[in-house]
């Protein structure tokens, strides 16, 4: 039997990149997945991909920062699949500036997507988790649930030009360790994966015409200068950036039964990079 057979997993930002790879990995191990993307098309496409391969999935699209999203997202999992076993807080993007150029809007936007949104999702999940855990305890069953929050080496070590992003990702580690202590009584393992250089559309080499993504009507520049990517690759002991699938594998470690006695931890998925 697949290790996650029958489990219900929620993955934010799972229409593209690392999130998509996480959703497909969990589905391949038997999980029923609630997909989310800012845009309908990629979110719906991943849900359809999982269904086409014999799995179960629904898409609850929209901005994780919107008021009411967390209740809608968690509610869909319970109503559609009747459970709530794995939460992966993955959605996010970067909006960089040096501090003297950073606006309040920029700073708050990073807090909203990388910290406030995970907080709201976990808060929305608290009551269903409490109810499920109580029922299981009364039946003499020990059932473990999983939360994996996605941080970054920028949150652990800082990164020039990312005061807002680094602050949010560092705070997410604090939230992880606090929820480990609050939810241990419910048999919830709460851990964090901090990514190093993972090759996605957000870290693609900047060409002559820098690409942008649309986030809530804002054009956000994405990509990294090629010379910086080369320098980072030279710093990584394994010699290259990671793939989305390798990033997903790190998250899966904390979703699997083998992590049932691991909680409150941060694992760096960065090819050995230590700053």
Automatic annotation (TrEMBL):
Its taxonomic placement starts with: Bacteria, Pseudomonadati, Pseudomonadota, Alphaproteobacteria, Hyphomicrobiales
**Pfam families found in the cross-reference section:** adh_short
Q: Which GO terms describe its biological process?
A: monocarboxylic acid metabolic process
Ketoreductase domain boundaries: 7-186
Q: What is this protein called?
A: 3-oxoacyl-[acyl-carrier protein] reductase
Tell me the protein family, please.
Answer: Belongs to the short-chain dehydrogenases/reductases (SDR) family.
């Amino acid at each position: 039997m697949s290790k996650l057979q029958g489990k219900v997993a929620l993955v934010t930002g799972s229409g593209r990149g690392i999130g998509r790879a996480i959703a497909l990995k969990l589905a391949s191990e038997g999980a029923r997945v609630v997909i989310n993307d800012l845009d309908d098309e990629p979110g719906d496409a991943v849900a359809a991909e999982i269904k086409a391969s014999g799995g179960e999935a629904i898409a609850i699209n929209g901005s994780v920062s919107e008021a009411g999203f967390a209740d809608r997202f968690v509610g869909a999992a319970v109503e559609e699949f009747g459970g709530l076993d794995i939460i992966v807080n993955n959605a996010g993007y970067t909006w960089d500036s040096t501090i003297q150029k950073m606006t309040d809007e920029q700073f708050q936007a990073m807090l909203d997507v990388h910290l406030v949104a995970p907080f709201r999702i976990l808060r929305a999940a608290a009551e269903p988790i409490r109810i499920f855990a109580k029922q299981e305890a009364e039946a003499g069953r020990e059932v473990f649930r999983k939360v994996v929050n996605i941080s970054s080496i920028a949150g652990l070590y800082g990164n020039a030009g990312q005061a807002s992003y680094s602050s949010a990702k560092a705070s997410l580690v604090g939230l992880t360790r606090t929820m480990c202590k609050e939810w241990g009584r419910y048999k919830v393992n709460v851990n964090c994966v901090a990514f190093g250089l993972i090759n996605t559309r957000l870290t693609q080499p900047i060409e002559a015409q820098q690409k942008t993504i649309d986030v809530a009507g804002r054009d956000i520049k994405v990509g990294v200068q090629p010379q910086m990517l080369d320098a980072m690759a030279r710093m990584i002991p394994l010699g290259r950036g990671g793939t989305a699938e390798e990033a997903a594998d790190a998250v899966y470690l904390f979703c699997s039964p083998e992590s049932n006695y691991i909680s409150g931890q941060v694992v760096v998925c960065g090819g050995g990079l230590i700053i």
